[in-house]
Amino acid sequence: MKTLPFKIGAHPINWVGEDVKEHGADTTYEQIMDDMQRLGLTGTEMGRKYPTDTEVLKQELRKRDLQLVSQWKSVLFSDPAYREEELAAYEKHVKFLKEMGSTVISTCEVGGSLHFDPRRTPNETEVIPLDEADWKNLAEGLNAAGALAKQHGLKLTYHHHGGTAVESPEEIDRLMELTDPGLVYLLFDTGHAYYGGANPLEVLRKHYNRIAYIHLKDVRQSVLDEARAEKADFITCIRKGVFTVPGTGDLDFQPIVEELLARGYNGWAMLEGEQDPAKYPAYEFAAKAIAYLESLLPTKAGESQ
């Protein structure tokens, strides 16, 4: 069997939805972790079903030789009124992940987001773009949070994300331009890049030197086309099944894997599908994704395909 040169893990969102709570609602954390162990995976992100007691979490992960790689952290830095409160919460998050042995922090601005911004009201239908002042405030907040992470030996990795104010390739570019490259890194997500209108390979090449963490997510083009025609919001797209794991959608991961091999990427890459496990069983789809990614690796002399 061929081995990927970078570290492969999986996000528990394949088993239990984070944004769509009914997906996998009855699935236990034991099942998720057991499945990951059976798949030969060694890394996981934090999931909403996982134990919140740090010692219990450590024990459950250790039993299965799993590393907690990261945990999502929403921030609201575009509004300076929240800065102090947000930085205090961020430092607490940093300390938790440090104790768990993590090195990267999945970080996403929720200001302007239709679904995640706590200031939004019901019946709104659009993401609100950031204005000049918002961008300045966001960059300052991220740099400050990145400095906190760095003090504890971790990296803030910014997760460009569908349904937020940093979604399109232009918005990713602007975020990278405005933030300190020594404090703010990029979480490159193939599926969210494509969903936001980018060519994932171009994002990978353009910002490779800032990338410290990767999510490998596929997209079903027919579902995306239908959702766009209906002007569906992000959460509706998840319910429709717009995302899946690599090899079971329509993105070509061959050039992406080749680029990562050529660049010598050796960090974590997480399998992420964010779909209903009742329709798309998480273990089965993760196994397909692993086999697909391995099939893209070059065959060495004397090695069977």
Q: Which SSEs are present, and which pair or pack?
A:
Elements (H helix, E strand, L loop, with lengths): L6 E4 L18 H10 L4 E3 L8 H10 L3 E4 L2 E3 L7 H17 L4 E6 L22 H20 L3 E5 L9 H10 L5 E6 H6 L4 H7 L4 E6 L1 E2 L1 H9 L4 H7 L2 E2 L9 H10 L4 E4 L10 H14 L10
Parallel strand pairs: 1-11, 2-3, 4-5, 5-6, 6-7, 7-8, 8-11
Antiparallel strand pairs: 9-10
Textual characterization of the structure:
Helix 3 (83-99) packs parallel to helix 4. Helix 4 links the parallel strand 5 (104-109) and strand 6 (155-159). The protein is globular and about 50 Å long. The protein has 11 helices and 11 strands. The strands form 3 sheets. Strands 1-11-8-7-6-5-4 form a 7-stranded parallel β-sheet. It has helices at 29-38, 54-63, 83-99, 132-151, 169-178, 190-195, 200-206, 221-229, 234-240, 254-263, 282-295, and strands at residues 7-10, 43-45, 67-70, 73-75, 104-109, 155-159, 184-189, 211-216, 218-219, 243-244, 268-271. The chain is 39% helix and 15% strand. The model has no long low-confidence stretch (mean pLDDT 96). The chain has 2 domains: 1-70 and 258-297, no CATH class; 72-216, TIM Barrel, CATH 3.20.20. It is α/β, with parallel strands linked by helices.
